[in-house]
Amino acid sequence: MEFFKSSIWEIKTASSLKILGGMLAAGHLIQFLFWQTTGQLPLQYALETSPMCWPLFDSCTWLRLLPLAVLKVFLYAYAFFAFSSLFFFFFTRFTGFAFFLLVCTFVPGFLLYIQDYRLSSNPGYVLFLFTFLYMLVPGKARLFRLFVVSFFIASGLMKLSPEWLSGSWFMQHWPVHAKLAEWLAVLSTLIELIASAALLLRDARYFWTGWITLFSYLCLQWWAMGYFGPTLFLGFLIFIGAQDLELRKSDREFIYQSFIRPEPTKLWTNILMLTFWLSLAAAHFHFPGRHLLLPISSVFAPHPVASTETCEQSTYAVYKSHTDEIEVPARAGRPETMQCSPYLRFLDIKSLCQNHASDPDFQTIASFLSIRRLRDSHFKKAFEVRDFCNSNVTFKSLGLSTWITSGRE
Amino acid sequence: MDYERQRIRWYWITLFVIYSMVMIYAVLTGNPYLYTHQEFKHELQSAPEQNPEPVPSIASQLPLPPNLGEQTYRSRLNAERNANAPAETTYSKNFVEKQVFPILADEKDGGEKFKPTLWSIDRDGFFLANTGAAVGYNLNGDKIWEFRFADQSKPLSDVVTDQGLVYLIQSSGEIVALNKSTGQLQWSNKLNEEVIGPSFISKGRLFIPLKSRPTETKIPRPMFRFAVMKRETGELSMFSKPIEGKPHFQISMAPELESWILAFDNKIVAVDPDKLEVVWTQTLTDPILGPVSVVGKSLFVSTMAGKVIKLDGAKKARQEWEVELARPPVSSPTYLPIMTKLSVLDDQGQLQLIDAKAGKALWRFNIENKNSLKETWSARMKGSIIQETGMDWIHRGWSIWAPCAKNRFCIYNPSKGQLISRVSLSGSVVSFPMEKDKVFYFLVDMGKNWAISKVETEKKSAASNNPTSP
Known about the structure:
The complex is a heterodimer.
Chain A: H1 2-13, H2 15-37, H3 41-47, H4 68-88, H5 95-113, H6 122-136, H7 140-158, H8 162-165, H9 168-173, H10 178-197, H11 204-225, H12 228-252, H13 254-257, H14 267-284, H15 290-300, E1 309-319, E2 323-326, H16 342-356, E3 362-373, E4 380-385, H17 402-405
Antiparallel strand pairs in A: 1-2, 1-3, 3-4
Helix pairs in contact in A: 1-2, 2-4, 2-5, 2-6, 2-12, 3-4, 4-5, 5-6, 6-12, 7-10, 7-12, 7-14, 10-11, 11-12, 14-15
Chain B: H1 10-30, H2 40-46, E1 90-91, E2 95-102, E3 104-105, E4 112-113, E5 118-122, E6 125-129, E7 133-137, E8 143-148, E9 156-161, E10 165-170, E11 174-179, E12 185-190, E13 200-202, E14 205-211, E15 223-230, E16 236-239, E17 243-244, E18 250-254, E19 259-264, E20 267-272, E21 277-283, E22 288-295, E23 298-303, E24 307-312, E25 318-324, E26 334-336, E27 341-345, E28 350-355, E29 360-366, E30 377-381, H3 383-389, E31 398-404, E32 408-412, E33 419-424, E34 428-429, E35 434-436, E36 439-445, E37 450-457
Parallel strand pairs in B: 1-30
Antiparallel strand pairs in B: 2-37, 3-4, 5-6, 6-7, 7-8, 9-10, 10-11, 11-12, 13-14, 14-15, 15-16, 15-17, 18-19, 19-20, 20-21, 22-23, 23-24, 24-25, 26-27, 27-28, 28-29, 30-31, 31-32, 32-33, 34-36, 35-36, 36-37
């Protein structure tokens, strides 16, 4: 409880942290709306027989202990607490209560989020990680400023790959010429790398130039990518702006305020920043002892930004009297980089088997998946399975060739 | 804490500037083609394959039919497209339609009318397809399988069969291979390029003509390339070099020339089947109608200008003769072996005979063809029929078979055009016949729906026949 008390005390003393609390509560509300508009995704996945485990765990059936009715209660409780928390963060007197409601938001939301890896996304990951740190870690103002900047820089560094710099992402989403797409890729990478670093500087000219650039960039992302991620980061940017103004004010009034309180410890911030950057390095570089960091890396490192694969899938429902070519329904909210994941496609079809099982004429599903990575000159087969609904067909039994699994640790 | 907090430290700014410069350098060197006209993505994809390992095969999941053999159906009766029935089989003249099997799809919903746009008819059955579905019927008229496409707006390009499988090829490049006798899915592949011509099987491999992708060096002529696929697994074996050819070109095989003969617009192109390269190209003055009819090393073509032309395939299609007909032909010429004649139907439904040696039009006879099929074919009559009808023994009974009048097909003596036999069917003749054990199977359009018409020899009577002469 001491953790919470000191956290509440720290939040009460800084308006920017109250803004951040409100932003986090709003973020959870957006997460709920996102789940709700995509057909109550956590409940959908809970209905399926085989969950997709987080890379941290070998097995995750234990996550399925909660019955569906309880999960449904969790989902609505999550929305209720998020909204209440956001509401009470508007009132300085109720900051402690709003903080308590945010804790109540986090618990059911997190339980829903971790039950299936398919629910993971960069915005979701940032939201739950930041809420967790907001609840427990001292030195929040500095920690979040560094974390937000680190996220932008990490995202920029990941965009230094040929996959992003080739402009494929822009060509996939907009009808632009390849050269223009390449320049847009360069520009976006530079904004994330340089404008975000400017947020660490005390010089107002540098800081606000970086801030405005990033703000405009996120607004463009909002239009291009959808509301979830950009809204969240716009909120964090507002927090950083507010925090900077607060810092300048406190600098001006330093002589009067120095006796008020001691500075919170910087130790946790430094440890967490080191962990974040080490896990990111472990995800992308080979160095001695890397394998020890991989489990942490799988939790901490964000998903790559650009999709580097295109895939083609033909799926057929086999009935006693005929065969139908069918489309596998696209799962809303799936990160672009996971669209071609053979494992996710495998789970999608297993779930289709379940949906068709009630039809007495239905026999099985056959499916053929081909993937083309950016550097491949043509599509290669990832799996081709004729009897998907056979219980003996497991993902392991598909015997995927090494070209698919390489680089997917 | 002191007032120094308010100061801006110069080394942070310097560090920021250095960091920014390093990042700009990293970004600009990350794409070495940024300042050139070359596209980075294209350059990455043209690099050698990173992981050229084979993909897992489904052969273990799906036992293949024991012998896939060669292609079992070719339009115009054979790969040479000269519309000759096999010379070793002889036929009687008295036929009667014994049974008619309606073709239906989606019987669960009450038997929807099914009008196929493509078909393959062989000794195992009828394999028919339209945009939305494909069905397999055995020769007893039983539907053995049905396959329905998800996207019914994509047109189908071809239906190809061999002894074991049926290949449904969509224009979008999606190929589905089904077991011919069970309809079980064998494999599926997406080539992601437009199929622009007929697909076929040669030397055990499936050839699919795909629209050639634009390359940096602009190709002045319309080009395509063959995707060569393994029939057992659907794996792509190779792509040919670009070959000149327009969409919907026609192809005939010329075994004696060791070439494939392609026809489109007013061009004839010979392709080496091993190297998949163009051997020669010949340009005619008029557009060509249908495929080239190949007989040994000779090539016969009908043109839209109303001519029939003979070309010497051994001499890069040098023209030997041309004959201008009274009315323009509507199909490729059909060859009559031994007597060296050609038959062709014209735009008024009249049957025209041509001397294939001298290049002279012979007799013309109005057969009032009102069937969907506008082509003739040639087959041999039995000795007893040669005797009975007074045909020349020297010509070994080769006769002209053609759709005639309404819902009929007729057999004619080529020497003077006498009608030998006339057979009534339940609908308009749509396809060339498929013969198995002296029984003919036709695809007929009955108006309401299409059907398989089974025509057998009637030994007792030929009363319905009323031979006449032109």
